[in-house]
Amino acid sequence: MALLAFLWVAALILTPPVWGEVFRYKHKAGDQYRILSTVNESVYLDRKLSHRAEVLNRIAVTVEEEAEGRFRHRGQFRTAERATEQGGTSFQWARDYESVFERDRQGYITIDKGYFMPVVRNVPVFPDRDLKPGDTWNAEGHEVHDFRDSFGIPEPYRIPFTANYTYLGMRPWRGKEYPAFSVSYRVFDEPQAVQGRIWPRRIIEASDQVVYWDFELGQARSYEEEFRVVFELSNGRTIEYRGNAEAEILESSRMDKESIAREIERDLNSLGIGDTQVRVVEDGITINLENIQFEADSAVLLPGETAKLDKIGEILRKYQDRDIMVGGHTALAGTEEGRRQLSEGRASAVADYLIEKEIRKADRIVVRGFGAEQPLGDNRTDEGRRRNRRVEITILEN
Asked: Does residue 262 surpass a pLDDT of 60?
């Protein structure tokens, strides 16, 4: 008995204890962070491949306040897309969203039902206990989709699910070890009809994710996902999305906009770039290029214009940690759709040149055509129309 007791005590001393980890969200008022998410998907209509696309989501979040373990977030969500076949060309703006929501320390979100973003809610969430590698848990979550354009459904469309979690222990991500856990859920639902041109009669979905947690940030550092979702629609057709997604969360610092704007103005003058103005805007700092010339009624840059863009590129290289948006603008002529297409095409021509010259990678630039929506001059005068035909490059704060 004495020997057995000795061996038992020795085993306790020599065997290292397995400690659990406590996963909790940690924020404080004033925190800012960015999420860069990329989705690669193939879209099938009636089981035949329709197209492949890459979707880029840029999300800027500010934590406005903290009270009793709940964090109030305000987020700006900007989505952009490009056809996969286009390769290294720029992403075209799709839609902007704003959202306000609260999240508690375990990860549960409270949000008004009118918001379309974030799409996936209550993922990840954590149980009220320590977790060791191999531990499992589950929790209710839901997706919310914007089907206004595709199905004519005016309200955010909710798809509930039960997420199953497994703590995987430490896993490598970009050369560093992070605590990781898997998240998977399956959906087979026959929802009730809703208002719209068409609506889902049956939803079949599978999502498998790996989430990498950062205890120092108090939130996820990144995630990877494989997904497939099929909608059997009220008109008898099916639409299916298959693909993968990944996201990275970055801490974001505030720009000294006024100081940077003055620095850019000095650089424009020293490089001899005329007909160009700089102004501070809500999104960041905008460089207004009235001197970038195109062939008449086209998006083809005139010979020699690339030399001007090379000089602009020298300036943009100084702010490599910031994404940029290239916006095209036209005078009030032609149809609204024609103006939008022309302005988008001209902005794309500038963005693609910046990508070609490696000023920014394609996923760091978004293109938007504004048409004649934001005039700077009077469209009744030649000078006003000249000012309105422009391309603007905005160095984004987030």
From this structure: yes
